[in-house]
Give the backbone structure.
Amino acid sequence: MKSYTEYMWFNTKNRREFINITSEVEEAVKKSGITEGLCLVNAMHITSSVFINDDEGGLHKDFDAWLEKLAPFGKEKYSHNLTGEDNADAHLKRTIMGREIVAAVTKGKLDFGPWEQIFYGEFDGMRKKRVLVKIIGE
Ligand code: ZN
């Protein structure tokens, strides 16, 4: 079995952003030389996510509005923020949107349905954050 590891770095301009990282992950699969296996992509911070969905701007606005309704940004609303932090909402948003994705690699490519794309979801940005890509197989 072969394995390949890569780290991707992000430093978003805004506090909250969704970034399509599909082509970077496809590039990592290519570099790995693995043709049959699994590809894990996970956020290494507890206030950001990696998830799979449609690359459609309206949907991304809907995600943002929905998350803001469930866990609105606001310092005084949360016990976590009594510690001096202001990112309780980002921890909750991350939990809803998920830590990681696992995708099958078949014949050297991500084996996706027609509309599946991989996104990095940032909920407490404007600082350096890391994502792990690990590909295993043969
Ligand atoms: Zn925190």
